[in-house]
Amino acid sequence: MGRVGVVLDSDSVESQGAKIVDVKVDPGGSATETAQHTGEAGIEAIPLDGDFAVYISDGSGSKVVVGYFDPKLERKAQKGEIRIVSRAGPGEVSCSIFVRANGEIEIEANDVKIVADVTITGDLTVSGEVTAKSATAPVKLSSHLHPTSTGPSGAPTPGT
């Protein structure tokens, strides 16, 4: 039978040579319980204190968390959509990746770093400045000059 409780704490521990996360849960009305954190392979997501944990007994007396819920998080995803958020605290979204049912992907963050070669097939629209860095000096797309036989050219003409 499953239970729901409030996450009080989570600690990384080692058990039988594996690194796991134990989650201390307050089920309300009884003593706190410890359950082993589980999640999708390849996704690392540790709960925050104050999240709700849904956990079950594995039959041997051990407990395993099968899901979490942040009761303060505003729900935005509709049917068929996926929204991944990083949280600074309960209900406090730091950044998000939103995969919408209409085929759009929206990323909201203070800073995005891509550590890879990037290929874009299609148009690229940028509302801010585009800066390319060389080994010696950055070059801004909107104000860079080109050398000519009579000296440097003028800055690019907007809209051309």
**CATH architecture call of the domain at 3-69:** Beta Barrel
| Averaged pLDDT | 89
- Find the count of extended strands (DSSP E, 2+ residues): 12
Question: What is the radius of gyration?
Answer: 25 Å
Q: Whole-Å distance between the termini?
A: 67 Å
Low-confidence region ranges: none
Question: Strand order of the main beta sheet, please?
Answer: 3-2-1-4-5
Would you tell me the structural class of the helices and strands?
mainly beta
Query: What spatial form do the alpha-carbon principal axes imply?
Result: elongated
Element order: H for helix, E for strand: EEEEEEEEEEEE
Task: Give the number of helices.
Answer: 0
The first-level CATH class name of the domain at 3-69: Mainly Beta
Biggest sheet, in brief? Answer: 5 strands, antiparallel
Fold-level CATH name of the domain at 3-69? OB fold (Dihydrolipoamide Acetyltransferase, E2P)
What's the helical proportion of residues? under 10%
Beta-strand percentage range = 35-45%
